[in-house]
Design a protein that fits this description.
Helices cover 44% and strands 11% of the residues. It is α/β, with parallel strands linked by helices. The protein has 2 domains: 84 residues, no CATH class; 166 residues, Ribonuclease Inhibitor (Leucine-rich repeat, LRR (right-handed beta-alpha superhelix), Alpha-Beta Horseshoe), CATH 3.80.10.10.
């Protein structure tokens, strides 16, 4: 393994840490890619410079201006492996962090993407795909929800992906979701049975944010969520636009308190 490969592997193994990224930036500086190294250091500094004071804001504007210059020079090169699914805001601390991508495209390319960037957030734009032989449309939730690739993600957004109860039952079979912090399932049709399945998923033990808005979930589903032994770590729960009566809503409020935000 080369020095480059070892440094990149350290970033992929420790996506929350800055030190491996800065070490990689130093290596790039010393190996004829100074702009890429500068971009990583710049973005790490931006992440730790909130606009909380006038001095911080002035510093941020300088960093943002230089960031724009570097992207103007290298945008196509740095975004190239992820186009058209990534844009300039997709970078976080120097690497592509998030993608908006159809599920079937993710399954085709995710292994390659995970080998070159600490990808943590995916917004699945659709779970439908068109069969190249029959030219019919079908859902690809079964291969997606049973894929080990999901284990690498911290944020999964499946809003308005035409999901049904059957799809959530498949998700419940996902072998590993240990990194998952945020799960958005808003505006689908997972129904009460789907909510009950979610409540029983021990894979969601680390989950901090769950969005179930507008899914046809009735009282039994709300009660299952309220009584789930695996959702106690939620800091944000969204359950509005479901036919949940006041008594069941009160159970959610009792369990989750201020985390129940809508």
């Amino acid at each position: 393994m080369t020095d480059h490969d070892a440094l990149l592997a350290s970033i992929l193994s420790h996506p929350d840490e800055d030190t491996p990224r800065l070490a990689y930036a130093d290596w790039l500086q010393e190996n004829d890619d100074p702009d890429r190294g500068e971009f990583i250091r710049l973005e790490v500094e931006l992440a730790h410079t909130p606009p909380s004071t006038e001095e911080n804001e002035r510093r941020r504007q300088l960093l943002l201006s230089r960031r724009a210059e570097l992207l103007k020079l290298h945008r196509l090169q740095w975004l190239g492996p992820f186009l058209p699914h990534a844009r300039e805001p997709s970078f976080e601390r120097g690497f592509i962090h998030s993608l908006d991508v159809p599920a079937h495209t993710f399954l085709q390319h995710a292994e390659r993407w995970f080998a070159i960037t600490p990808l943590m957030r995916v917004k699945f734009t659709t779970c439908l795909f068109r069969d190249s032989i029959t030219h019919n449309y079908a859902m690809c939730t079964e291969p997606l929800f049973t894929s080990s690739l999901l284990a690498k993600l911290g944020v999964i957004d499946l809003e308005q992906c035409l999901l049904t109860t059957a799809d959530i039952l498949r998700l419940a079979q996902c072998p590993d979701l240990s990194r998952l912090k945020e799960l958005t399932l808003a505006r689908n049709e997972i129904r009460t049975e789907g909510a009950i399945a979610i409540a029983g998923m021990r894979q969601l033990i680390a989950l901090e944010s769950l969005d179930l808005v507008g899914n046809g979930i009735a009282d039994a589903g709300a009660k299952a969520i309220a009584q789930s032994p695996y959702l106690g770590g939620l800091k944000e729960l969204r359950m509005s636009r479901n036919p949940i009566r006041k008594k069941s809503w009160a159970m959610l409020e009792l369990r989750f308190g201020m985390a129940l935000v809508g």
